Amino acid sequence: MDVKSAFLNGVLNKEIYMKQPQGFIAARQENKVCQLKKALYSLKQAFCAWNQQFYSILNELGFEWMYSG
After folding, report:
1. How do the pLDDT tens digits run along the chain, 69 residues long?
2. Does the predicted model carry a pTM greater than 0.85?
């Protein structure tokens, strides 16, 4: 499992926007923003998005969650 890029594969379930990154600002479109389709590593929602996707895949494979407590 590639832990370093795991959070980059989380699918977002909310609309999240960010400013254009430095060096990639489009000419005459300086005030536009980017809509994220996948989670970024430093995004607060990245862990939650990745965890939800990981949980659903494990369920599809037949794993069951048992809680003790």
Report:
1. 666 666 666 778 888 898 888 888 888 888 999 888 887 777 778 778 788 888 888 899 999 877 766
2. no
